[in-house]
Design goal:
The chain is mainly α and 52 residues long. It has one domain (3-51). The protein contains four helices and no strands. The longest helix has 9 residues, at 3-11. 21% of the residues are buried. Pfam families: Ank.
Length: 52
């Protein structure tokens, strides 16, 4: 996963959402996607932006 997307998911920064397939499917070394991270941290707007 690109560090920028991970960081955006961690802080809930919607403007960093890039909906390319590579971005949506990328994972951290632990296997988490940006959606997993945003959901776990309660960033509903970020999660919705990923799903839109």
């Amino acid at each position: 996963m690109k560090l920028d997307l991970y960081e955006a998911a961690r802080i809930g920064s919607v403007q960093f959402v890039n909906k390319t397939t590579e971005t949506l499917l990328s994972t951290t070394p632990q296997g988490n996607t940006a959606l997993h991270i945003a959901s776990r941290l309660g960033h509903v707007d970020f999660a919705n932006a990923l799903l839109a």
